[in-house]
Amino acid sequence: MRTYGFRLFDTAIGRCGIVWNECGVAGVQLPEARAPETRSRLLRRFPDAREAPPPPDVQRALDGIVALLRGEASDLSAVALDMEGVPPFHRRVYEVARTIPPGATLSYGAVAARLGAPGAARAVGQALGRNPFALVVPCHRVLAAGGKAGGFSANGGVATKLRLLAIEGAAAGTGPGATLPLSGGDGATGVGLAFDPQVAVTHLRASDAALARLIEAVGPFRLQPKTTASLFVALAEAIVYQQLTGKAAATIFARLCALFPHANLTPERVLGAADDTLRTAGLSHPKILALRDLARRAADSELPTLAALHRMEDEDIITRLTTVRGIGRWTVEMLLIFRLGRPDVLPVDDYGVRKGFAIALKKRELPTRQALARRGARWKPYRTVASWYLWRAVELARR
Known about the structure:
This protein has helices spanning 35-45, 56-69, 88-97, 108-114, 121-129, 158-167, 197-207, 209-218, 231-241, 246-258, 267-272, 275-279, 285-299, 306-309, 314-321, 329-338, 351-360, 369-376, 383-398, and strands at 5-11, 14-21, 24-29, 50-51, 106-107, 142-143. By secondary structure, it is α/β, with parallel strands linked by helices. The protein has a 4-stranded mixed sheet with strand order 3-2-1-4, with helices on both faces.
C-alpha cells in the first residue's frame, strides 16, 4: 500500500498543492479561489494524503513549478510521475504533452497525429481534461482547432489556461494550429485579450438574466487592449486623462508628447523639462507633480516592466502602482482592462459601471459599491466583460 504526502506552496498565480508517493508525483492541484478550498480539493482527490516535508526529488519538482509560474525557463519533463491507474491512452497523450516546451503549443489534432491516431482529437481533449498532473503534464499548451483555447478543467477555466500561456510567453505558439491572441509580453506588440471572449459571454449569459438581456441589446464584445511602448507611457497617459473628457485629454497628451523630439515621452525628458514647459501642454500643477513622481520612479527602476506585470496578480499590481502620486485604484483597474486585457476586473467606483448597472437592472438609484460587488460575484471570472457591457448600457440609454 502506497503512502501519500502533500504540501501546499505559494506561486505567482496563488497557492498550489503537490501530492507524492514512493513512485513519484501523484498529483498537482492548481489554486482554487482561496487557499482552504485548494486544500479541500486536493484532499478530496487524495483523502489518504498527509501533509509532510517533500522529499528532495519532489522538492525539485515543486521549485520547478514555482519558477515556471514566475515566467522563468523551467523544464519539468523529467519529473517522475505515478501513472498507476492512468489509462494507457491517457499515458500516451501525457507523454506527448510533456514534449511541448514552454512558450509553444500543439492542437488536439496534432497530439492525436503524433500518437498515430488521426481523428482522435476529441479523445485527446478528454484525456487532458482528466490530467492529474497540471503543469508537469502541460495540458494548457494544447489548443483546439484554429488556435482557439478549448477547455480547461482548473478553477477559472479558460481564463486560467490563457493566463498560464501568457506567463510562458505563448502569444502565438510554435506548434501546429497555435494562433492564440494574447497581450504581448512587453506590451508593444500585444493585440489581444488574455481570455476567450466567447467563453466569457456565454458564462455571463448563463449567470445573470439581466446581463443576458443587455448582451443581446449591445451585441458582440469588442474590447481590444491598446498597445503601449512602456508602462511609464501608459501611466503618464492615464494621469493626463483623469477627470477630463476624452477629447480634451487626447489633445493635452498629444501636446505633452510633442514637447519632446520625435514625440518620444521618456522619464528622463519629463524630469528634465521645466514646469513652465509642461504647463504649455495644458497640464495642471497636480498632474505635473504626479508625472514627475512617476518619471522619477521609472528612472530609478521602481516600476515593474510590462513583462513583469503579466506575471503578477491583479491586486499585487494595484498595490504596487498606487504608490505613485496621482495613481489610484481606478486608474490601475483601467490599465488592467484596457492595456493588459485581464478578464476579471470590476471597477466598483466607476460611475459609468454603476450607472450601467442601474440601467440594466432598472434601478432608480445608483448601486453602492458593496451591492455592485455582491452582484458581480456571479460574473466571476469575467467581470471585465460585464463591466464593458455596463458601459455600453449607458451609451444605449443616451441614444
